[in-house]
Structures are given as structure tokens and as C-alpha cells.
Amino acid sequence: VVAAEIRRLADNVTESTSEIEKRVSEIQDAISRLIVASERGASMIEIGLQESARTGERLSQLVDAAQQSTSAAQQISLSTQQQQIASNQVVIALREIVTASSNTAQSISRVLAVSKEMSTLSTELGNAVGQFKID
Q1: CA–CA separation, 125 and 123 (whole Å)
Q2: Tens digits of per-residue pLDDT, 43-74?
Q3: What's 132's DSSP letter?
Q4: Whole-structure pTM over 0.85, yes or no?
Q5: What is the 3-state secondary structure (H, E, C) of the chain?
Q6: What does pLDDT average to over the chain?
Q7: Is the dihedral of CA 91, 97, 102, 105 positive or negative?
Q8: Can you tell me the distance from the alpha carbon of 115 to that of 108, in angstroms, rounded to the nearest whole number?
Q9: How far apart are CA 68 and CA 107, in angstroms?
């Protein structure tokens, strides 16, 4: 009876040992798969980091380009304002020229009227002098 019980215990230990070996093998397989998955994950993380760095560089370039565009737009705005001021000054100068031209035309008209009057007076004076000839 004792030998049968020992044999049954030995069979149970053998079965348990086989079960433990099977479980250890499953755990080792799971660990191997986990290692492979971890390596893949680490590789993907590295690729993600590289892509993040590239994206950061591109964003930096975009910010630089935006700053340059802003600077160019400010320069264009300043140039436009300067051109507007210059145009206003040209308009003022043209108005002054028109006023001066009008004044000049009026002065010429007066000079012409005075010249005509002097010519008339000169003719009358010549006629008057012609009447008073001393012989």
C-alpha cells in the first residue's frame, strides 16, 4: 500500500514536473515574444523620435519663413505709406503750380491790358505832338 501510494505520488510529481516544464516553456515563449515586441516598440519609438525631430525642424523653418513674410509685409506697408506721402506732396505741388499759373495768367492779362493802354496813349501822344509842330 505504501509503495502504491509512493508510486502515485511519484506519478503526481512527474505529472506536476511535466506541467511545470510546460508552463516554464510557455513563460519563456511569452518572454521571447515580449522581448521581440519590446525591440519592435523601441525601434518604432526611435523612428517616432526621428520623425518628431524632422517635424520640429520643419516647424522651425515655417516659423522662420513666417517671420520673413511678416518683415516683408511690414516693409511693403512702410513703402506704401511713404509713396502715399510722396503722392500727397506731388498733389500739393501741382496745386501750387496751378495757383501760380493762374496768377501768372492774370499778371500777363494785366500786362497786356497795360501795354494796350500804353500803346493807345502813345498813339494819342504822337497825334498830339503832331498837332503842335513848330515851324
Answers
A1: 5
A2: 999 999 999 999 999 999 999 999 999 999 99
A3: S
A4: no
A5: CHHHHHHHHHHHHHHHHHHHHHHHHHHHHHHHHHHHHHHHHHHHHHHHHHHHHHHHHHHHHHHHHHHHHHHHHHHHHHHHHHHHHHHHHHHHHHHHHHHHHHHHHHHHHHHHHHHHHHHHHHHHHHHHHHHCCCC
A6: 92
A7: negative
A8: 10
A9: 58
Residue with cell 498733389: 91
The Cα 101–Cα 94 span in angstroms is: 10
Specify the residue for cell string 497786356. Answer: 112
